């Protein structure tokens, strides 16, 4: 999976590989508009990008029937196995997308040294989603192998476009979490912990909003007619610096980041365009809404200052989430018999954001339980870094945790 990373809503090859494997295991597999609600997707890439990636997927051997189902960025898989015996409905979520990062080509980076570096230039699995996908397929294999001794129903959600908070809402609104008794998701790493250590819950995930901003001005000759120009580059630059000056909120953690700025035409041209990609985060929905409101105010003020127009596109979000602490004892007890799990922490502190929040909140709203776990590994570099990697032994640990959670509700020798 690491060699073939794909960006959100363009995981065509990834979806196909997952889906074919799950079909062989006897799962009922849903893809395309069957798996997610089309108009609930955030930040769908433009048609030109989708077409380029669809062409690449076809060249990699993805059959036409799969491409037809996924056309237009309808990627991701929902796989269901119903034993038709009385028992809990358990749901597990695994994210499958990669990041727009050029992977490091240095011997200290294990994927390069061992020759399984990304084959898709400029795209990299720099957040362990390739590992999550592999864990999900492993869990599916376990369920298939023990189908005769399992009870209840299992739903595995292989979700597209987690990065940027764009994909979970589309699967949630399709109704896959209806009637789920317990929901589990998790992440490799985040904290650098020993392999064999897991956390049953997490605390600190932030609500977030993702914005794309277009400043539109008027180009002109910078020497002969500068007064005729309206400088969108300066508007974008002003906004980028001033956004980071937003006062923080007294009621909790807040964040803002401008992660991308593109502007300008040439040194002797007043720029007629500027583009920003930014995000806000808050410990609660209210704090995040405050940060977003202030960000919009500054963006509009920067446009007014430089006499340009501004368009603000809302392209992604996550909600605040709270793990059910009632699951800590059951997870801890279930994992006691694991030969791979050495330590179960009740919780781990984090400070990112997760669109699995949509799924968790939907389950909890209906009276079910939900948690987001961590699986320990040494991290040679940060998440979202060209040198990101993890110890592959964590794959077996994370899979064993999920297996023991399933076994905890079933009588399996």
TrEMBL record:
Asked if Metal-binding is a keyword of the record, the answer is: yes
Q: Where does Mn(2+) bind?
A: 127, 129, 163, 187, 384
Instruction: Outline the extent of the Peptidase M20 dimerisation domain.
Output: 211-303
How and how many cofactors are bound, per the record note?
The Mn(2+) ion enhances activity.
Per its UniProt record, the required cofactor names are: Mn(2+)
One GO MF term attached to the UniProt entry: metal ion binding
- According to UniProt, the name of this protein is Aminobenzoyl-glutamate utilization protein A
- Please report the organism this UniProt entry assigns to the protein: Halobacillus andaensis
């Amino acid at each position: 999976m690491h060699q073939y990373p794909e960006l959100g809503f363009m995981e065509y090859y990834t979806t196909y590989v997952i889906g074919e494997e799950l079909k062989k295991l006897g799962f009922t597999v849903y893809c395309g508009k069957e798996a997610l609600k089309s108009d609930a997707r955030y930040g769908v890439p433009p048609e030109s990008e989708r077409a380029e990636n669809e062409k690449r997927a076809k060249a990699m051997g993805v059959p036409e029937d799969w491409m037809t189902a996924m056309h237009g960025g309808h990627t991701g898989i929902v796989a269901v196995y119903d034993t038709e015996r009385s028992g809990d409905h358990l749901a597990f979520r695994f994210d499958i997308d990669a990041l727009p990062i050029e992977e490091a080509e240095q011997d200290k980076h294990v994927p390069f040294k061992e020759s399984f570096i990304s084959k898709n230039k400029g795209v990299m699995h720099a957040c362990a989603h390739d590992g999550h996908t592999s864990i999900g397929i492993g869990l599916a294999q376990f369920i298939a192998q023990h189908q005769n001794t399992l009870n209840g129903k299992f739903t595995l959600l292989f979700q597209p476009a987690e990065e940027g908070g764009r994909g979970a809402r589309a699967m949630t609104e399709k109704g896959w979490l209806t009637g789920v008794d317990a929901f589990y998701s998790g992440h490799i790493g985040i904290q650098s912990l020993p392999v064999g250590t897991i956390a049953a819950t997490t605390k600190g995930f932030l609500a977030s909003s993702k914005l794309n901003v277009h400043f539109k001005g008027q180009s002109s000759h910078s020497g002969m007619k500068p007064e005729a120009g309206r400088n969108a580059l300066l508007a974008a630059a002003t906004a980028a610096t001033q956004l980071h000056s937003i006062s923080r909120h007294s009621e909790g953690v807040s964040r803002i980041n401008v992660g991308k700025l593109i502007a300008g035409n040439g040194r002797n041209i007043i720029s007629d365009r500027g583009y920003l990609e930014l995000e806000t985060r808050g410990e609660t929905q209210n704090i995040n809404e405050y940060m977003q409101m202030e960000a919009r105010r500054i963006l509009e003020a920067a446009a007014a200052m430089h006499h340009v127009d501004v368009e603000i596109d809302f392209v992604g979000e996550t909600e605040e989430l709270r793990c059910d602490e009632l699951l800590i004892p059951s997870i801890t007890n279930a994992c006691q018999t694991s030969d791979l799990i050495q330590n179960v922490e009740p919780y781990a502190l984090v400070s990112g954001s997760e669109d699995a929040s949509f799924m968790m909140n939907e389950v909890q709203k209906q009276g079910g339980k939900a948690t987001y776990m961590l699986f320990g590994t040494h991290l040679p570099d940060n998440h979202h870094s060209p040198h990101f990697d993890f110890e592959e032994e964590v794959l077996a640990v994370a899979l064993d945790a999920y297996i023991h959670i399933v076994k905890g509700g079933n009588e399996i020798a």
